[in-house]
Amino acid sequence: MPDINIHSLKALAIFKTLFEAGSASQAARTLGITQSGVSRSLSQLEQNLGLELFLREKNRLVATPEARELYEEILRLMGNIEELRHSVLALKEFGTSRLRIAAIPGLAFGFVPRLIATLLEDNRGFSISFDMMSSHEVLREVESGHADIGFVTLPVSSRVLRVEEWLTTQARCLVPRQHPLSGRDEVSITDLRDQFLVIGNQPNVGADPLLHLATAHGIHIAGKTEANIGAITSLVANGVGISVMNPITATDQLVGRDEVVVLPFTPSIDFSFGLVYREDWKHARALEFIRASGRDLLREYPA
């Protein structure tokens, strides 16, 4: 078996430059060593590996198929070394080089991806896993250790997790731009009488806050379309109906679209979001960064 040591690693670096330069003289100039030093290093490397890497033809070096494959392996090795370097930097900066995040759909279409981008902006060594799931599933993933931190809809309770409230915000009404209600300063529950609604699909439709509010006020609706939260704004934009949504999700999903008018809604429907993590993460520097950067991002959203 070939002996790979610090000397052969230096020879591999010289070989890489030689392969890219195409000649020993050019490689020598690039490396700042003599041409004979390049040739001697190549000869020792071929002897150590038991491979012929270049054919000598009329004072020219022609790379063999083995040389091309070795060059590709060296590029992969260098990529791994660079990744290791970034990981070490992330460890020094945040105490971890891996972060597993779970988040509810309402924050997964813009807020959390923007937060991840902020984290990676100067810390490319981070390895990040990001999953979107319900609040109940987020709790389960963080409790089991399959996720490090989670973003949830409040209230939630857990005997093993820390729960931080991040914000409570009031729902906004999403109205198709061509709808008669789009010219209002605000929309009230009574304005939804005999209107078509778009609501989130969930196991218990009766738990939908908009339907619950309509029932409490004796408001008859013409019909409803249930959809994944990621499709609600698109359905409203296409004139399917009116919806009520937290402004974080609405803002993220309506970037670059003008087919929907977002209006205040009364009476208020509150949406609360929070962060959950295990006890052993309470002093993690990565968590401190997430907390600070996340709160800065939230200031960019409607109050």
From TrEMBL:
What keywords tag this UniProt record?
DNA-binding, Transcription, Transcription regulation
Cited PROSITE patterns: HTH_LYSR
Please provide, alphabetically and separated by semicolons, the GO molecular function terms listed in this UniProt record: DNA-binding transcription factor activity; sequence-specific DNA binding
- What InterPro entries is this protein classified in? LysR_HTH_N, LysR_subst-bd, WH-like_DNA-bd_sf, WH_DNA-bd_sf
Q: Which Pfam families match?
A: HTH_1, LysR_substrate
Boundaries of each HTH lysR-type domain copy?
A: 7-64
Q: Which GO terms describe its biological process?
A: positive regulation of gene expression
Similarity comment: Belongs to the LysR transcriptional regulatory family.
Under what name is this protein listed? Answer: LysR family transcriptional regulator
